[in-house]
Amino acid sequence: xxxxxxxxxxxxxxxxxxxxxxxxxxxxxxxxxxxxxxxxxxxxxxxxxxxxxxxxxxxxxxxxxxxxxxxxxxxxxxxxxxxxxxxxxxxxxxxxxxxxxxxxxxxxxxxxxxxx
Amino acid sequence: xxxxxxxxxxxxxxxxxxxxxxxxxxxxxxxxxxxxxxxxxxxxxxxxxxxxxxxxxxxxxxxxxxxxxxxxxxxxxxxxxxxxxxxxxxxxxxxxxxxxxxxxxxxxxxxxx
Lengths: 116, 113
Known about the structure:
The complex is a heterodimer.
Chain A: E1 4-7, E2 10-13, E3 19-25, E4 31-37, E5 43-50, E6 56-57, E7 68-72, E8 75-80, E9 89-96, E10 105-107, E11 111-115
Parallel strand pairs in A: 2-11
Antiparallel strand pairs in A: 1-3, 3-8, 4-5, 4-9, 5-6, 7-8, 9-10, 9-11
Chain B: E1 4-7, E2 10-14, E3 19-25, E4 32-38, E5 45-51, E6 56-59, E7 62-67, E8 72-77, E9 86-92, E10 102-103, E11 107-112
Parallel strand pairs in B: 2-11
Antiparallel strand pairs in B: 1-3, 3-8, 4-5, 4-9, 6-7, 7-8, 9-10, 9-11
């Protein structure tokens, strides 16, 4: 299993500002995943972050709005840029088992953002 | 792309009853089907998963069944307890070498004492 720490756990932000969420894993992992969970909704994959390459974004998500960094095998950041109230969500970092096959995803506790 | 539908959206049962949550998926190439439980304010956690080479899997009070022909899978919880109250998400993936899960819309299960 993997232990994932996210910061901040929650924040209240003003419209038009940007916020960076940090994700730290206790072991080296190839891929890290960023999910969004809007209030009372399901989990939607934003992007996949590989160390040493550009993140891969899912349909509906763009780099200008959600820039991602992956400087090493244990750390990633997600920035939510130029925020609007529609960006109020929980943002979750996750990693898989690293076996190369589909398996358990381990999630961080999430970062709950409220945009006023 | 893959689309996963989940029903019901809410489910209320009495303690000791059984609960069944159903999901359908669209991509016949999907071969991995996990279920996650998310308690209020907590992170999602895997409770059981099934792969396309089996039809049923059990773990104590929890079981998952898979019908690949019909492209649906179900979660069964027997002898429900109040601590089973949570939101349950099904998911599907056809990944090998890349974990990309598509989640269902979630089922809020409430178990009343």
